[in-house]
Amino acid sequence: MAWLKQQDLFDADSIDNELIGIAADMGMHDSGWHQHKMGQFLFTQGGCITIRLNDRLCLLPPTRLAWIPPCTPHRAIMTEAVDYRSVYIDVSLHSNLPMQVEVMTVTPLLRAALERIAVADFDTDWSKGAKANILAVCLDEAAVAQREPLLLPLPSDWRLSGLDTDELPPPLHELAQKAGASEKTILRIFRKETGMTYQQWRQQWRLLKAIERLAAGQSITTVAFELEFASDSAFIAFFKKMTGYTPRVFMRF
């Protein structure tokens, strides 16, 4: 097992084992674009991680688990202190793992299995005995874990190159004017490249930003105001519609 420090370099592909766990407690950190031959489970116990992909944004809130398939270019960005565990797995030995990036709810049993893997020695034999059982529990729990809507597809059309994903997306008519295209054209681009209408995409963006800000300790009132909801109750209703939970319940998981 390795506790990583801010300046440490780590390459999972350089270690000869089917399963490798690491842990780290970092402040502001940007992994830079990279990929690895092994699949990766990434779990954060405190603080959010933004995972940038070629065509999507992924938000990993506290106590959730992200799955990143092998050879997936990605960049993990932490803007505050984050306590995380990372588990790398050889998918050639476990072919039932997802083929796409997913974020899932972590059950107590899955959390316990991840923690056991993260603190194990790099040369642990996971093919037999109690260790094999822990791995099996981890994979079984991950397979049935509830998936969460925490990915945002990104349009690539050149007319939307000025769309800033760090700022609240403007209303459709303002975006069309800025892009120099009609509203119908903008809607067509979003449906084609994201599978969403622009309004659906904007609402998904608001959800991810809301979770990120709540995890940073902002109040419901502050988040509702900054994301331009008419009231706290309107924000809470939106959040529950998108996730199935109120903000307070969601953040307690």
TrEMBL record:
GO terms for molecular function, please? DNA-binding transcription factor activity; sequence-specific DNA binding
According to UniProt, the name of this protein is: AraC-like DNA-binding protein
- Could you tell me which InterPro entries the record lists for this protein? AraC-bd (IPR003313), Homeodomain-like_sf (IPR009057), HTH_AraC (IPR018060), RmlC_Cupin_sf (IPR011051)
- Recorded source organism is Paenochrobactrum gallinarii
Q: Name one Pfam family in it.
A: AraC_binding
Residue ranges of every copy of the HTH araC/xylS-type domain listed in the record? 172-253
| Keywords noted in UniProt | DNA-binding, Transcription, Transcription regulation
Where on the tree of life does the source sit, at the highest rank?
A: Bacteria
Presence of keyword Manganese: no
